[in-house]
Specification:
The protein is an alpha+beta fold and about 150 residues long. The chain is built from four helices and seven strands. The chain has one domain.
């Protein structure tokens, strides 16, 4: 994910990456403290963090919760260690802990979900300006002017 630099990984979280089984790091984005894996760049979203990141009125977390479970990897939740279920939203497979309501997204999935969420807000195939998931964090920084990326 282009939004994270090596210098972002300074504060260790008390959580473990469900994919790599190593410590996650706390990375701040727009006053949200996300748990990110330094190795695989996956992100753990506590309840409401994903919707907050996506923007006001985002239904992404609700969509994830109401979709049917799929056969998945059943990775352990970084909080309670129970097995997460795999869900599909906007063609992206994410992992949800049904006990904690946290969501694990692998590298690049946040951008893909954001792109599809933005497209869904524009009916009749009208496209919003500058939808390019490679520029997700730049767009996010512009959209929320108080955002300051650490350097």
């Amino acid at each position: 994910m282009s939004g994270f630099e090596e210098s972002d990984f300074t504060v260790k979280s008390d959580r473990t990456c469900p994919r790599c089984d190593i410590d996650l790091y706390v990375v701040e984005r727009n006053n949200e403290f996300l748990d990110v894996c330094k190795e695989c760049r996956g992100i753990w979203f506590d309840p409401n963090e994903l919707d907050d990141l996506m923007g006001k009125g985002s239904p992404v977390e609700l969509l994830i919760k109401i979709t049917d479970s799929l056969k998945g990897e059943e990775m352990p939740c970084p909080i309670c260690e129970k097995r997460m279920v795999t869900k599909e939203v906007y063609g992206v497979y994410v992992d949800l802990c049904e006990d904690c309501n946290g969501i694990w997204m692998d590298v690049g999935e946040t951008e893909k979900v954001w792109e599809m969420d933005e497209r869904s807000k524009h009916p009749f195939n009208m496209q919003p300006e500058e939808i390019d998931r490679r520029n997700f964090w730049d767009h996010f920084k512009t959209k929320y002017q108080g955002f300051e990326q650490k350097e």
